[in-house]
Amino acid sequence: MAWPSPLEALVIGASAGGVAALQTMLGSLPGSFQAPVFVVLHVPKDRPSGIPELLGGYCALPVLEADDKQPVRPGHVYFAPPDYHLLVESRDALALSMDEPVLFSRPSIDVLFESAAAVYDRGLLAILLTGASSDGSEGVAAVRAAGGKAWIQCPVEAAAPAMPNAALAHAGADAVLRLGEMCERLKGSPA
């Protein structure tokens, strides 16, 4: 089934079309899901995103916008705030960065995935969803190189297939799945 064993953390990246995909995915997570979840969704940098409030209503887990040096708690969902990179600093803390945008994006999916891979290695599952850029390709490669697993949304189903296609071409995947299949697998997570 291409699961990290044990599943210690989940990272998710999405861009164009990502709000609807994340609504479905986060809504599928059971309240008993124990791994922390870190999410980058490309959002406009010049206004509050409102995404945690919007998606929190669909998710059985607490959904928060990440703060710098915020403690990591199991069974919580942390979103990158607008115009900040989100990094997993350690198993105990998050970090925010205003380093240069990566592929025109801040927050960057690559930055999140690479930092999480360095901390969680084999215990990490990365999920790359719909998007119109190539952000996430290097991150997926880093996760897989560290021994973690990567699921990529089936490009045919994605609202914007460019990001899944770019990651598949660059890094491959442990599974290419439709959104509904990902949700079913997450419900049966070993976390």
TrEMBL record:
Keywords: Chemotaxis, Hydrolase. It comes from the Bacteria. The active site is at residues 15, 42, 135. PANTHER family: PROTEIN-GLUTAMATE METHYLESTERASE/PROTEIN-GLUTAMINE GLUTAMINASE, PROTEIN-GLUTAMATE METHYLESTERASE_PROTEIN-GLUTAMINE GLUTAMINASE. Residues 4-186 form the CheB-type methylesterase domain. This is protein-glutamate methylesterase. The keyword Hydrolase applies. It catalyses: [protein]-L-glutamate 5-O-methyl ester + H2O = L-glutamyl-[protein] + methanol + H(+). InterPro entries: CheB_C, Sig_transdc_resp-reg_Me-estase. Its EC number is 3.1.1.61.
